[in-house]
Amino acid sequence: MFTNFEIMFKPQQGVIKFFFLSRSITLKRRKELKHFIIKLIKREGYKVGTINYIFCSDDYLLDINRRYLNHDFYTDIITFQLSGKNQRIEAEIYVSVDRVKDNASNVGEKIAVELHRVIFHGELHLCGYKDKSKREIGAMRKKEALYLDEYL
Predict the structure, then answer these.
(1) Model pLDDT for residues 94-114, shown as the tens digit of each residue
(2) pTM, rounded to two decimals
(3) Which fold has domain 10-151?
(4) Residue 5: per-residue pLDDT
(5) DSSP structural state of residue 14
(6) For residues 49 and 14, is the Cβ–Cβ distance under 8 A?
(7) Fewer Cβ atoms within 10 A, N terminus or C terminus of the chain?
(8) Dihedral, CA of residue 142, residue 133, residue 91 and residue 1, to nearest 10
(9) Which residue from 97, 102, 108 is spatially nearest to 24, judged by alpha carbons?
(10) Average per-residue pLDDT in the chain?
(11) Is 101 helix (H, G, I), strand (E, B) or coil?
């Protein structure tokens, strides 16, 4: 009975939350970004439940990478989809602020642009995009650029 009550009052539009374990980056226009992320997911044909973004350090994300994915390398983002197929997207997305800054520097991009690219990258993974093959990477980059152009 309690579950039905909770489901009845669950937000229909979705909830995006930002958590900062690293204070070395600022995320401006948060409310606008949350609305844009929801719009992006809907445009890709999905519904949003709750998506938590956790901004952290290289070491924090490396520990998650080792512990849960058995990978022993730094990465800029790890996306955990917590919902099943055909359900509202429920997820946790971990972003290494250190990697974002390094990547921005390496490609000569502004940190804010690289940060948003990574944020949209995580959402695209939740919408079924992959980035293992050259073809998949090309499709992912094209969508990232589309959403970056629309948002920034």
Answers:
(1) 999 999 999 999 999 999 999
(2) 0.88
(3) Collagenase (Catalytic Domain) (3.40.390)
(4) 41
(5) -
(6) yes
(7) N
(8) 110
(9) 97
(10) 90
(11) helix
